[in-house]
Amino acid sequence: MEEEISLAELFAILKKRKIMIVSVGLVMLLAAAIFTFFIATPQYSSTAQILVNRKTESTEGIQLTDINTNVQMINTYKDIIKGPVILDPVSKKLKSDLTPAQLAEKIEILTQDNSQVFSLKVTDVSPVAAAEIANEVTMTFQSEIGNIMNVENVTIISEAIPNENQISPNNPLNLVIGLLVGLMLGVGAAFLLEFMDKTVRDERFITEELGWANLGNISEMTRDELVSEIDTAKQKSKIRTQSRV
Question: Which domains, from first to last, does the chain contain?
């Protein structure tokens, strides 16, 4: 016969182990706070916007097909911007110890559907450095892209400015996640301890599972009852001693 656990018994287990569950939750919250405020390195981002138009041979000016081609070419610009042809000069101008590959990891190209404008986002531990890298990359791209492709007009719509608001770590989110993970671990540990506990708590287990006869119950004394019994025994012992004298 399989042992079944009711919803009431589950809540009873949680109530019984509530101190342990809360304690584990607070420990994980503290660990998340230590990591967030003392270990994790804050990251900042800065963004510049660029518009690129390719040369057209049409005498009628820019056509819809030209615009669509410019939009499709943005993926090519992504590869060029994150390549050594742009990032090598950037590294030298900034006098940075970062290699082109390391600079490329800091750069993210953001696009919007059917838009010729794309954004160059740089993430760094310093908001000022992030803005400097973004601006230097856009200016280098503006000056070099004409030598690489048939492009006549590169416009920097907006320069990057230092942003003091960190993008990571997300302090409130980290704390909430730490608390929730702790509570889940506490609940898991509570059920694990309960299921590993082989103590017999119900006489039905003896009569139904083991098939033994129930010969009686022994009540567990509370602390107050135990103290009262000890005091009573001492009083009786004292009376007997006095009567013998």
Answer: 7-35+171-235 (no CATH), 44-158 (3.30.70.1130)
pLDDT tens digits for 192-220? 988 887 666 666 666 666 667 666 666 77
DSSP strand E in the chain: where? 44-54, 107-111, 117-124, 151-158
Cα(72)–Cα(13) distance, integer angstroms: 60
Question: What global pTM score does this model have?
Answer: 0.66
Dump pLDDT digits (tens) for 32-64.
999 999 999 999 999 999 988 755 555 454 455
Residue 43 DSSP symbol: B
End-to-end CA, the chain:
64
- Asked if residue 46 lies in contact with residue 136, where contact means CB atoms within 8 angstroms, the answer is no
**Residue whose entry in the numeric block shows the structure tokens 């608390």:** 179
CA 112 to chain centre: 27
Strand 107-111 relative to strand 117-124: parallel, antiparallel, unpaired? Answer: antiparallel
